[in-house]
Amino acid sequence: MEDIILLGSFAAIAVFGYFLMTKVDHFLDTIQQEDREPEPIICFHIATSCFSAIPAVSNIVEDIHHRYPNVHCKLSVGYEQEVIQSFACGEADVAIISADSDAESQTLAQWKRIALNPKPFCLDNGIIKVNTVGKEAKYQKVLWKRRENEFLVIYFIHRLCGRQI
User: Fold this and answer.
1) How many CB atoms lie within 10 A of CB 42?
2) Same structural domain, 18 and 50
3) CB of 68 within 8 A of CB of 155?
4) I need a labelling partner for 47 at 20 to 30 A (CA). Which of 76, 126, 149, 159 fits?
């Protein structure tokens, strides 16, 4: 009889210890999750009025996504005035416009003149292939301002222009 009581009390202590340890483990996990701060998501916005820029920009954006997973990239395509307005009001970090525009003086931005060769690109995982009608290189201006995500802007400009800025 004493053995049964001893075995029962030992089992009760073991169950109580297991219950207590699961509560402590849950409490410590909660504290660790509160201590860990999620990485902030950085938004990088490129606006262009040139369709020939889309393949080059999308390749660079893909590379940025692989290097910096916490960066959310957005590419907007529109009329040149819309692109300039988006850049001037701070929505776009980089703007790609026609080479003959004088927008850099209006927006007080840094800029480079580049030649972009038209290349076909695919949409929706290769279902739609987009070709440009013209086959000659088009000169464009790339505008940028130095901001809080300057490392992305410099990386993007370096990749697009092919040299240090």
Assistant:
1) 15
2) no
3) no
4) 126
